[in-house]
Design goal:
The chain contains 14 helices and 49 strands. It is of the alpha+beta class. The protein is globular and about 90 Å long.
């Protein structure tokens, strides 16, 4: 039985040093009654202070600077709770799944223990410390936060395994986290407890059978006989059941059960099939206790573990470099191209339970075709809810231990005490996460390098120690020492020219390189795995208005202290202005231009990697989400989970059957001809049948200057060059033109179903100023259907009834930014040409029908509401 101690009925208070000792603050009979505030567990000290009115909104302007005193204090959290007298005689453990970062624990005034380490659980036997049939007081004294390193420092200074992001990072101001950040509960059992259950799976060569090894660790307070009942269940059906009896000695006993399943339902990544889940239920009955009224022996303990059946492995990339690690991931024997994103904590106050936000983010990832998230090494070993949703959604997890580069020097400490601490923590972390089928890869940390800038390998003491723990405690998981892990760190023209075959797993760049330079770089890419790179972009105007006063929104440069505080590393105002002829004079226009460059730049980088499949085996842009509402950031979603155009651009590139184009620039002045190559990619495991591609060079007026087509099929898991098109620029009479590429599948009756639709915007001038000069057009939007298509609430048809292309058409949630619930769109941020329509599927989640409202915008069309 589990007694939940979470809730908003905790009290908390700050102390300087050990003032709490002098005041007996942890004791039931304390006279320290002033200034206790209401707190919430799980939670975050700073969030509780904010909602008690003790600090100003730290997400607004530069208010976070006013809260930097908080982690310098000691905080005492306490809660009264009742224990049923009937539980006397049971064994009771107190579990605190996560306290950040060091704490002492008291029950009814008695010290029951001390714990240090935010990613490991504090567990105490409190059987004899509880007052049965009475009220009990639990007090947790959270020590001052450790003095750790912000982003710029030396990694060798780091001594704690704690999230570094909150000490200040390029996308997160200094808001150092403290608190009881994960669940608190009492585990009540009989004389026998289940300490651990681990399910290991081994698939036969043909995947027709799966051999399961179920290892359980039991602990008994006294020797005795037990009956252990085990069931394996899939989709409500019991596929295996057994009953075994054992005589247990006092203390711990390890049991093993071997099971063979025929025709197992495999856990497949998103886009490759269903993510089938099983669970094993283990129940332990105490045969030494008196039978209950029904004649059955009493249940002493039970445990339910979810698991999946799958096999992951590395395979060599298509590269002549024999020294390269293999980076092609195979899942259940099939090469699986990694369509990923980098994941950071969804909130700087990561102790706050936000299940709706978590599900929103992972739902968006799944809808975008993502099959892997890299959990970055400056953030978190995430809470269980994250892995549970990834299990359900088929999203593979690349989990890094929390170590990261530091700018000045990036090599971890070699001190034995530090290495031993990291290994000890890993020995606790790995067993808690290893049953999740989504967790396929462990990594030692982010961007760990030697003095010459080369990525470290497993000869580094702490990385070798961590690898040893993973191999021993999570067999079957993959391992990388750090990311990147090739002999070359950076994806740059200089690095490619010096050592083109040395671009193994690389990072960077993180910025839009320029209207020509960006395409020059990515056209010459040679990486085997591109595990981190990005393009910066501004947040939405809606978010900016919510977090920055109007009179502080301009100029949007680093010289503005508010912008410097909110993502200054990614403030590329100068690049945006140069790209648009220095014609942007207010925030809304700058945001539109910035988000366009981010979307186009990131899409091109992703497509360029995919075009090199299987030389390149994975692309993971930086970064999917952000933990704080920055003004500028490399994230595809802002803090309030509003997708930027970059989200939809990458989602299109991640479609399983897709046609992309390669070209040399966005602005074409001084060139003789517009030229592009067309490429088809197919990542499905089966043939699609006959495909038809139609391409055209179309002006903003809708005039078609050139067009062509291709017919054929695409091999599963292959890329094909479909052809090249070229058009003399002298034949273009418009300064804004588009390359449109549509891919359709033809059925037996000859009908065509559109599979993918790509549209690339270009300028005939030296910059993108013509985008700002597009003539106005008119959009007509109508709801043509409601609730008849599964998973869809609205179908919205948007028609361009004007004479010019509507540029960057977007639908957005028109409700206030903090309103509950979300909207999901099948596509967004696209052009619509004169006389053409676009059909969008709209799904509302937890939004009352009477509250649903969308805003329709385009660069050159009036705002409308639906």
């Amino acid at each position: 039985m589990r007694i939940d101690l979470n809730g908003s009925d905790w009290l908390f208070k700050d102390f300087l040093g050990e003032d709490w000792v002098w005041r007996n603050a942890e004791k039931p009979d304390t006279k320290d009654s002033r200034w206790w505030r209401k707190g919430t567990v799980p939670g975050t000290v700073l969030y509780d202070l904010w909602h008690n009115g003790e600090v100003a909104d730290p997400y607004y302007e530069r208010n976070s600077l006013l809260a930097e005193w908080v982690p310098e204090r000691t905080w005492v959290y306490k809660k009264w709770f009742d224990i049923d007298g009937a539980l006397k005689g049971s064994r009771v453990q107190l579990h605190v799944k996560g306290v950040d970062h060091e704490a002492q624990f008291f029950l009814n005034g008695l010290r029951i223990g001390h714990h240090k380490g935010m990613f490991t659980a504090a567990v105490f036997d409190v059987t004899d410390a509880l007052e049965y049939g009475a009220a009990n007081l639990l007090a947790v004294v959270i020590e001052k936060a450790p003095d750790e390193q912000p982003q710029v420092s030396k990694t060798s200074y780091v001594r704690e395994h704690k999230s570094r992001m909150t000490y200040w990072w390029d996308f997160c101001p200094r808001m150092i986290h403290q608190g009881i950040w994960d669940d608190v509960y009492l585990d009540v059992t009989g004389g026998i407890r289940i300490e651990d259950v681990h399910v290991k799976t081994e698939l036969s060569d043909g995947y027709q059978t799966a051999d399961l090894s179920i290892a359980a660790k039991l602990s008994a307070s006294l020797p005795g006989e037990v009956r252990v009942e085990t069931r394996i269940v899939h989709e409500g059906e019991t596929v295996f059941a057994s009953v075994n009896e054992y005589r247990l000695p006092e203390g711990e006993t390890e049991l093993a059960l071997a099971v063979r399943l025929n025709e197992p339902r495999l856990w497949q990544p998103n886009g490759s099939g269903e993510a089938h889940l099983y669970y094993v239920l283990m129940e332990v009955y105490d045969k030494e206790a008196a039978p209950e009224g029904n004649g059955h022996f009493p249940l002493s303990a039970s445990e339910a573990i979810t698991f999946g059946i799958r096999k992951v492995a590395w395979q060599r990339n298509e590269t002549p470099d024999a020294s390269a690690r293999p980076y092609v991931m195979t899942v259940n024997g099939r090469r699986t191209y990694i369509k990923g994103w980098n994941w950071v904590p969804m909130d700087v106050m990561y102790g706050r339970p936000q299940p709706e936000k978590l599900e929103r983010l992972l739902t968006l990832a799944r809808a975008a075709g993502v099959n892997m998230l890299r959990v970055w090494g400056g953030g978190l070993i995430e809470k269980d809810a994250f892995y549970e949703l990834c299990d359900r959604f088929g999203i593979m997890v690349w989990q890094e231990f929390i170590q990261s580069s530091s700018g000045i020097a990036n090599k971890p400490s070699e001190e034995p005490a530090f290495v031993e601490m990291m290994a000890r923590e890993a020995e606790s972390i790995a067993p808690r996460k290893r049953n999740h089928p989504s967790l396929v890869l462990w990594c030692g940390g982010n961007e760990l390098q030697d003095g010459e800038g080369r990525p470290l390998d497993d000869t580094e003491p702490v990385l070798g120690a961590l690898r040893g723990v993973v191999e021993r405690l999570h067999p079957g998981a993959l391992w990388l020492p750090t990311s990147p892990s090739g002999r070359c760190f950076l994806n740059s023209l200089e690095a490619i020219e010096q050592d083109p075959e040395g671009q193994h797993d690389v990072h960077g760049p993180w910025e839009y390189q320029g209207l020509t330079e960006h395409y020059t770089l990515y056209n010459q890419g040679t990486s085997l795995l591109h595990s981190e790179f990005g393009v910066e972009g501004m947040t939405h105007l809606k978010t900016l208005n919510h977090t920055v006063r109007a009179d502080n929104q301009w100029p949007a440069t680093r010289e503005n202290p508010v912008y410097f505080h909110r993502g200054s590393w990614w403030n590329n105002e100068g690049m945006i202005q140069r790209s648009f002829g220095h014609a942007l004079t207010e925030p809304a226009a700058l945001i539109r231009a910035s988000q366009l460059l981010q979307a186009e730049g990131l899409r091109y980088a992703v497509e360029s990697n995919i075009r090199r499949m299987w030389q390149n085996s994975g692309t993971l842009p930086w970064q999917f989400n952000e933990p704080y509402p920055n003004a500028y950031c490399t994230s595809a979603l802002d803090y309030y989970t509003l997708p930027k155009p970059a989200y939809y651009a990458v989602a299109r590139a991640y479609r399983p059957v897709y046609v992309s184009a390669s070209f040399s620039r966005m602005a074409w002045e001084g060139q003789q001809a517009f030229k592009a190559e067309l490429w088809g990619v197919q990542t499905l495991s089966h043939r699609t049948g006959k495909l038809v591609t139609h391409w055209s060079v179309t002006g903003a007026s809708g005039n078609v200057y050139a067009e062509g087509s291709w017919q054929g099929d695409l091999e599963p898991g292959h890329v094909k060059r479909l052809g090249v098109m070229e058009l003399p620029l002298s034949k273009l009479t418009e300064d804004v033109f588009f390359l449109r590429v549509q891919l359709a599948q033809e059925d037996e009756a000859g009908a065509h179903e559109l599979v993918s639709d790509s549209c690339y915007p270009f300028s005939r001038k030296a910059d993108l100023t013509p985008y700002l000069e597009l003539p106005q057009t008119h959009l007509q939007a109508e709801r043509i259907q409601s609730g008849e298509e599964p998973g869809t609430d609205w179908l919205v048809r948007i028609t361009n009834t004007g004479a010019h292309a509507a540029f960057d058409v977007q639908l957005t949630d028109a409700r206030p930014i903090l309103e509950a619930g979300f909207v999901y769109l099948s596509d967004n941020a696209f052009p619509i040409f004169p006389g053409e329509s676009k059909l969008i599927r709209v799904t509302w989640s937890a939004v009352a029908e009477t509250s649903r409202q969308l805003e329709l915008t385009a660069w050159n069309s009036a705002v409308q509401h639906l």
